[in-house]
Design brief:
heterodimer, A: mainly beta, 37% strand, elongated, B: alpha/beta, Peroxisomal Thiolase, Chain A, domain 1, two-stranded antiparallel ribbon, 15 helices
């Protein structure tokens, strides 16, 4: 039993967001050190603002400016900040109801320790020195001794020069990936330039690559079987546009290949022959290069083409 | 049939969709779904308060990077105090969303349900979302069309179809889209020659035979008999609905004509009492992401015998004005906000039997098929709608 493989898998992407009118005004306002909320149908001020009334579902567009000072409504201490969190030093996650608002905003509070944080404490915004129209334009909150500002939020038209209409929100997820026992066995064999599948004890079909279970019968597969190395091109396409991040020159042939002894086709590139001479039924063999685990491509073997009847059930 | 007599008949009384475009930078995700939902409510002359539940569908969360968007979109869809359900079945999800909503009404769990589906492809990159760098695997080598093109070649080989049938489909659907104000791609001055001479991207698929990447949303209001009686416009009635699934890859999978698709069609026809779909259905909105899938689905769905689908297309039968118009809206080839695409098919089928399809109305349409599929031909969902209530 070879070792079960494991490796990090990082998924990250710079997603973009079209803001729409309300978020655009809110984030542009932060850039200008102005915090805007929105007035609901029943007269409450929501900060941060939303586009639709949470109770009546009506479209709400009446914006109002609230104070940069507020009151902590609840909090949690974060002793070990992670990358990309607003502060590098330990901080408190806080919900802050800004003066003039009826709801609380989630942000962080710069404090020396949990002993210095309490529900009901007064805080104010510490603005980031460089502001772009993002929630991080509020660098953090900091303790503040002043009383709650009296009076309601002040109506605001939400109009600013050069409004922010879209933002980029990078997302990143870190996983530890393991392909499991069956695929680990297959991958270990591949490293030795052998291609293996597993046979279902019920339907007797051989799946390549194996997944440890027959997807048709739902029973575990345990019988290893070596397939190929020769196989038949069942179908293919000629790729004329470069896929993102692929280093292969176009045109090239992307083929489905049924290895001898396998009951379904795998997908691979065809090389060693001009792209316009590849045929359904062509016989091919894998070509490994360097110390790569997977074959780089498949090349023609020179055998006579397989008859259509021999692979038509594999299309 | 006795099993269905206990079900409440379900009517489509409101339909709305957004203007679809490559990038709807003028609206947030909330604003996008809201636009479609608002139009569906207006069509039904109902308010948010009239909705008893909301069912939301979209394709993978990775497509926009908003995990559980149903949480964020609850306000925009008037879901406060109501049940919200999220549906996800890859590209077929729009259809599945309508069926989940229809079942809530049919089972008399709710009386009136809002079903909404969307995708805002411009916020991310669907190809990236579908090709995460899984360790130990070779990356997908061929891009979006590379998955589909080998199956098209297999269909051509199996059926003996001449090479130009795909171009006929694209030429038809893109012309139909010119009659549909909501469609994304409006290719004015399109000619068959232009389709035939467009770049060959994934031989045998040309550029003009591929679906666009769209931002858009679609919404329908489903209700019971009492709700239908109050509706201001003629409803469409659900005569049958079915979903079927199969693994994406398994030994014996028929990629050209997947069994799950055949079984799903058989079930939806059984419910609707249809024995000869080509004769009994007046119009079909099929999920055709690449042109050749029209003849492939015509066979899979029983409109043509195996190997004969391309003949139906080549005869002109599937054109607007033909014997069996397919995708009078312009189809997925003209508009593809992935998560919404299935619901748009279902909604367009309903628009046809309501006689409210405008410039792309099929004269006298009384029964229509809405079809969706996705996930590497893993999921299928379909409904048959008619202008009269079901009789069983």
């Amino acid at each position: 039993m070879p070792e079960i493989l494991t490796a990090p898998l990082t998924v990250s992407f710079p997603f973009t967001r079209s803001l729409g009118p309300v978020q655009s005004a809110f984030l542009t306002g932060l850039r200008e050190r102005t915090v805007l909320g929105v007035r609901t149908t029943d007269g409450r001020i929501l900060v941060p603002p939303v586009e639709y009334d949470p109770v009546t579902a009506e479209e709400i567009r009446d914006l109002a400016e609230v104070a940069p000072t507020g009151t902590v409504t609840t909090w949690a201490w974060n002793p070990a900040p992670r990358d990309n969190q607003p502060l590098r030093t330990p901080f408190a996650w806080v919900l802050v109801r800004l003066d003039g608002a009826d709801t609380a905003l989630l942000h962080v509070l710069d404090a020396p320790g949990p002993h210095a944080v309490r529900t009901g404490m007064r805080v104010r915004i510490r603005w980031a020195p460089e502001r772009t129209g993002a929630i991080t334009d509020i660098g953090c909150f900091e303790p503040y001794e002043g009383e709650e500002r009296a009076g309601p939020a002040v109506p605001h038209d939400g109009v600013f020069d050069d409004p922010v209409t879209g933002i980029v929100t990078p997302a990143r997820l870190d996983y530890t990936y393991t392909p499991g026992r069956a695929l680990s066995r297959h991958l270990a064999a591949l490293a030795e330039h052998r291609i293996t599948g597993e046979r279902c004890p019920s339907c007797r079909k051989v799946h390549v690559p194996p997944r440890g279970v027959c997807p048709t019968c739902g029973v575990p597969t345990t019988e290893q079987t070596q397939v190929g190395p020769h196989g038949t091109v069942t179908t293919f396409c000629v790729v004329n546009i470069k896929a993102r991040g692929a280093g292969i020159e176009v045109p090239y042939v992307y083929a489905h290949i049924a290895l001898d002894g396998a009951d379904l086709a795998l997908h691979a590139r065809i090389g060693g022959i001009p792209y316009d001479e590849v045929r359904m039924g062509m016989r091919v063999a894998p070509v490994w290069t360097g110390d790569a685990r997977h074959p780089d491509h498949y090349r023609p073997t020179g055998e006579p083409d397989a008859g259509y009847d021999t692979y038509k059930e594999l299309l | 049939m006795s099993g269905r007599t206990s079900r409440e008949p379900v009517a489509v009384v409101g339909i709305g969709q957004t203007k679809h475009a490559a990038a709807r930078r003028d609206v947030s995700l909330a604003g996008l779904v809201r636009e479609a939902a608002r139009r569906a409510l207006d069509d039904a002359q109902l308010s948010w308060a009239d909705m008893d539940a909301v069912v939301l569908g979209k394709a993978p969360d990775f497509f926009e990077g908003v995990m559980m968007p149903e949480l964020y979109l609850a306000d925009a869809l008037g879901a406060a105090g109501k049940p919200v359900l999220r549906v996800h079945t890859a590209g077929s999800v729009g259809g599945s969303t309508a069926l989940v909503a229809a079942d809530l009404v049919a089972a008399r769990v709710q009386r009136t349900v809002l079903a909404v589906a969307f995708e805002k492809q411009s916020e991310s990159n669907a190809m990236w979302g579908l090709s995460l760098p899984v360790p130990f695997q070779q990356p997908l080598l061929a891009g979006a069309g590379g998955f589909f093109a080998p199956h098209v070649r297999a269909y051509i080989r199996r059926s003996g179809a001449p090479g130009g049938v795909g171009a006929l489909v694209a030429y038809k659907d893109r012309r139909n889209a010119l009659r549909n104000p909501w469609a994304h791609v409006h290719e004015h001055g399109i000619t068959l020659e232009r389709v035939q001479s467009s770049p060959m991207l994934w031989d045998p698929i040309r550029y003009s035979e591929t679906c666009p990447s769209s931002d858009g949303a679609c919404a329908v209001v489903l209700t019971d008999r009492a709700g239908a009686a109050r509706a201001p416009h003629p409803p469409a009635w659900v005569h049958g609905g079915a979903m079927r699934s199969e693994p994406t890859l398994f030994a014996g999978k028929d990629f050209v004509s997947p069994r799950a698709g055949r079984d799903c069609a058989a079930e939806v026809y059984r419910q609707a009492g249809i024995t000869d779909p080509r004769r009994e259905l007046d119009v079909a909105e099929l999920y055709v992401p690449f042109s050749w899938y029209e003849p492939m689905w015509l066979e899979n769905l029983g409109f043509a015998a195996e190997g004969e689908g391309w003949k139906l297309t080549a005869s002109g039968a599937t054109e607007l004005g033909g014997e069996l118009p397919v995708n009078p809206s312009g189809g997925v080839l003209s508009t593809n906000p992935i998560g919404a695409s299935g619901l748009i098919r279902f909604a367009e089928a309903a628009l046809q039997v309501r006689g409210r399809a405008g410039e792309h109305q099929v004269d006298g349409a009384r029964k229509a098929l809405g079809h969706a599929y996705g996930g590497g031909a893993q999921f299928f969902s379909m409904w048959v709608v008619g202008d009269r209530p079901p009789t069983t």
